[in-house]
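Input.
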Amino acid sequence: MAKNSVNDYSTTAGNNTDVQSINIDEGMAPSNVNNAMRQIMAHLASAFQGGVTATSIKAAAFAAQTATHSYAGGTTASYTQINAAAVSLGGAALTTVATLALASQVEAEGGTATATVMNPLRTKQAIDANVIAASDSAAGVVELATSAEVQTGTDTARAVTPAGLATVGFMELLTTISTSSGSSQAYTDIPKCRALFVVFSGVSSSGTATMQLAISDDNGSNYGTARDVGVPSVSSAVANHIQAWITGTGATATSKRIHAIGGLASGGNAAVNTEVESTRNGVTNALRFSPSAGSFDAGTIYVYGWR
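Output.
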């Protein structure tokens, strides 16, 4: 095959017997030497000046050039560049590969440059420079508080997660129960709480009665012994205002203590009653409110959970 361009040259010397059909095989005419050398030079010039379409170029054919770029802080980054002008592979032209510069700090923070290359350090610096700290009046990035910081309760710049809040506990209103009718009221499906706090507001009982409270660990199927938490029996309907703490509710132990302070809206004496509910062995998940006799009149029961 005639060697009409550098693409036709063979890497085996013995196979190169002509240049542009000029015979350079053994026994060639002396005049062919000059003609062949001049033609080889023309082939090389054509190849380097874009006159030849390269169909296959190995990566090793390009000489890598290492460049450096210094930026703030004195750190130096190196990168490899290949300068190629209108190289074509398989008929598809490649975009010229120009020298790639690393983005400056200003460019990284601005985020608008399209001809520079980012690096991990610059990316972090750009993010840090644009971070807005959250406050009680502005949205932004906020750090999570540790359990110790949550327990201290003095930090104003960190956020509290549910897990962090659980380390110190919090009060939550679980339900509100109306006592406008019926002889008893119940609250079931109570979430697991460390303790329960019950407030009886303006709850009155018709006739002679004592306010009682019982707890369950099987969601109301069975209740333990009812405990008096209100004022002892009176002969007429009066409003009871009672506060009762129930502790040990989140444990499976039998000791469930009920601590109550009760009073009367008109007449009578306040009562303090501390009992031990030991007949239910599981986690408390239901409460029952009832008078020892008669029935409830208008009033409201608030149940809070200490989570």
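Confidence is low (pLDDT under 50) at residues 83-88.
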